Amino acid sequence: MGSVETGSIGAGSAEPGSVGAGSAETGTVNAGRERLARYSLTGPENQAAVNAGLAGGAWFRSAVPRKRMKELMKRSDYPAVRDTVIWLGLILLFGGLGTTFWLAWHSWWAVPFFLAYGVLYGSTSDSRWHESGHGTAFKTRWVDEGLYQLASFMIMRDPTTWRWSHTRHHTDTLVVGRDPEIAVMRPARLAKLLVNYFGLVDVPMAFWLMFQHAAGIPSRVLQGEIENRKAEHQHEPGEEHEHGVPADTIKATHTHPPGTPPHTH
Prior knowledge:
It is a single chain. The relative contact order is 0.10. This protein is an all-alpha fold. It contains 11 helices and no strands. The chain is globular. It starts with 20 loop residues before the first helix and ends in a 33-residue tail after the last helix.
């Protein structure tokens, strides 16, 4: 057995300090746990990011005038309803054609239709999930929420947990210990990335998280977010808030994702 990344030596070696296969596996498992702990919202990197001034940073703001920006961001139901009807219609069309070709004629012509169906179902649903989750897809709120719930189901995401998670992601993007949605931890594990291309990691994890949530057990993401919010909003009267404003002069000026518990200072 050859050496592993942790620097341990194979079981066949008799040199002093060498370790066997069991020790190598244990070392790999421990390294994996340390890696997960480092990226965890409840791990030591969270406070390190706060101390370094990376948490809640001031992000780039466009030079576009506010009035013009509001004009560009004006929402309307019609384009989103039209596009959603076309999207769902194409999913049904390609799925129906693929099924017909396969069941009626046992033809491999079903494959391209199933591929198109899979792309529309599994990929474009993510963009719908994202925009409706931010409340930017439709002008009418309940339609937005309906699409968010549908898209969350399609891509196996618990709608409540991911709403918390994604809000934090946009607040502390790519900050280790603060962003729960860093897709690839370092060092990257290519094998995991490849199998997850087929959902072999994310889908079982999604089921587990949903079962936890349904049972009233908060996930690590929710636990971390609750702790973060408690830490961010514990201020003494007159103490400066993270944005440089005295804490006792702002009450409920923050915006929070729909469905998350409101709070005040």
